[in-house]
Amino acid sequence: MTGLSRRTFLGAAAGAGAATVLGSRLASAATTPKGCFAGGTVYIGSYTSGATGHGLDVTTRSGAALNPVRTVPGITDTSWFDRSADGRTLYVTNEGDPDGYVSALNIADPAKPKLINKVSSKGGAPTHLSVHSSGKYVLAANYSSGSVVVLPILGGGKLGAATDLVTHHADSGQAHAHQVVNDPTGRWVLAVDLGADSVYVYGFTAGKLSLHQQLKLPSGAGPRHLAFHPNGRFAYILQELRAEITVASWDAAAGKLKALSVVPAVPPGTTGDRFPGEILVARDAKLLHATVRGPNTIASFSVSPDGGTVKLVSTVPTGGNWPRHVALDPSESWFYVSNQRSGTVTWLPRDPATGLPGAVAGQLAVGSVNSVYFAS
Fold first, then answer.
1. Looking at the domain assignment, is residue 33 inside a domain?
2. 155 lies in which domain range?
3. Which residues pair with 328 in a beta bridge?
4. Is residue 10 predicted with pLDDT exceeding 90?
5. Count of domains in the chain?
6. Which of 43, 95, 273, 329 has the lowest CB atom count within 10 Å?
7. Contact assessment for residue 240 and residue 223, using Cβ atoms and an 8 Å cutoff
8. 21-25, 75-79, 177-181: which has the minimum mean pLDDT?
9. Could you tell me if 348 and 317 are in contact, meaning their C-beta atoms sit under 8 angstroms apart?
10. How many separate helices (H) and strands (E) can be counted in the chain?
11. For residues 1 and 243, what is the distance between their CA atoms, to the nearest angstrom?
């Protein structure tokens, strides 16, 4: 399945009635909670190939509301963001298929990103990237080719040619790498592969990956993304095709994941489409949250004090169709959800007492939106 056909299947092309222009926002009905991070630059990624997005848009915040500023020209199919350790360079995936790229942009002035260079991801549909905690490399996951690439960071934030490329292989069907991150120690790199139903653990030295473990999940689970508990001892693996979270222990000394339990991401009796999208853990680690496409909700889970047990406690409508991504603002006072099919970014207040999302307070129209990233 190509990146474009995947996006068609999972809703990147705007559905009927979707917004097609980055434009007018609805007035926010919410007041800004005390201590809320207000202002700053926010980047929004969207699909451009066979879709209605602009690629990369710059917005600012007024209270919780997002206000459009400009589109950065020539940055196509932007589907993930991360930035350099010094905060002066933004790295984005350009999810072309069969030829994907990763772009580096100077954000010394966050409101005016300037392209530094663009390099091949050595595969198709790069859907995720992360800057390694060493600050020396960008890691990217190529969805359609099922591969992970390592790109060195050169002077001034420029990207160099790949130092390594590893390709996954599924027992049946095709591998689809969907995420690649390092563990909290920086010693290990973990790649989540939806098609191979696996999380791969790699040793990482001098820009080279060496396979250390392949944690195989049940056939058809479709792992998409994972998030670590702040204590570094547990990882929560979001499964796209079974609407579940696998709780796994993480032994950083040994570089080993161990699956412990599986928790549904939807209430009992839920029918129809159920495709989880994104997962995040709040800084206080009392809750983790995931988007679920189909019911179009943010699912919230309580987390035990040690991190080893999670339980679904709440589901809240995102106010849009097909929530691909969710982010918390830097103060963790607001949730921002990228609703792909409806072409909207919605924002929901986070209750300061419970940590749970409230009702939608406003929205911004962004065609074929896929993600939101806070620069400042």
1. no
2. 3-25+39-374
3. 335
4. no
5. 1
6. 273
7. yes
8. 21-25
9. no
10. 1, 28
11. 21
